[in-house]
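Data availability (excerpt). The following record was deposited with the supplementary files.
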Amino acid sequence: MTSIRRRTLTLIIGLLLAGITMMSVLNLHDSNHEIAEVYDAQLAQNARLLQGVMRMPMASREHSDLYQAFNKALSEAEPRVDGHPYETKIAFQVWNPKGEVLVHTASAPSFGTPPGTPGFSDVVDLNHRHWRAFMLEDKQNGLRIWVGERDDVRSDLVDRIVRHTLGPNILGSLLLASMIWLAIGWGLKPLVDMAATLRARHPGSLEPLQLMPLPTELEPMQAALNRMLAQIQEVMGRERRFIADAAHEMRTPLAVLRVHAQNLMEAGSEAERCESLEHLIAGVDRASRLVNQLLTMARLEPQSAIRIPPTIDLVATVRASLVQMTPWLLNKGLELAFDVSDEIGPVRVDSAAIDIALNNLVTNAANFSPEHGLITVRLNKKADHYELSVEDEGPGINEEDRDRLFERFYSRGNDQGAGLGLNIVQAIADRLGGQIRLENRASKGLCATLEFHCF
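Predicted structure:
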């Protein structure tokens, strides 16, 4: 991936060079135009000055002497000694009405006949040199005055302007690019410092970043990194708690299983072996339930991103869960009843969460129900929430134990329980924006009610 500095510098320098190139082209075009205008004006002015000289009132003999003096002076010009190199590139000629050349410079191109069109024109002489010329027709005296300038004069001037313009532009661009490089490096220094700080941190360090002072643009990045570190710390904390809880809770069941296995090996009679085997099977069942409960807690704890669940038939979901548990309840000698209100229709709720909560509530009710007891499940719709209740005919709860029942691994009056059922239901209630209530029934038994909201 290209660095931010290189990308930014490439974009800025590219735009800078494009702008300089465009301005240079425009300047060159304008310079050519202005130079042409100035030089054309000089040609026209020189032609009119020469016209004024040729109009001077003189006798014919004096005019002839003047023309000869002109030609002699122009032929004696030595640009390398006392003149300018451009003198040989500027020329003029004057014709009389008969087409005879009266005055001309030595560098003037040869014409078979005088040019006939007045005004500006481009001429190519016999030596293939290009001239920019101005033709002035003096109708009063019948003279034709031609003033010309070789194109290389203008080209040389334009080349000089280009060299004098592009040189500073190129040098200035290099200097500006260097300054931009340094400026971008200075501007990105806080980002470089943040990266260096992150690289220098210990791999196990999850403390929030506190980089001060911090530019406004990097504050959201630091906040996002701190949120990510907090989430990682929370996930690792959950993993540590899960491992600690699992290790703590599995220690006793495994020790009990070992005792039952030893008793089975040391049994002296068939009756003792059968009793030890039953205890061993019961211990394995309890360990399996504990593992399942621990895995359920591990799955419920992460606060994942909120997502809208699909629409489900809540009544059918609850009924399907109860159907799965019915054989187990009948095997325990218990009866099951389901009471549902008629106004409940399709809703948006997490069906898996409802299934887990219902299984734990019904399991708790079955563990404390007397033989041939009745477990009643009720599903009702209230004004702004739903209620899923499980009623049993057991001994109920003591008021002083109510709060402790939601603690992890607290199991009251049930040696086979893992102490996680109500804690799991409490976690589900929190996820569904509701609560769990435990109330002793007026007759006998306990009513556990899960309140939850749907989307």
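Summary of structural features: The chain is about 55% helix and 15% strand.
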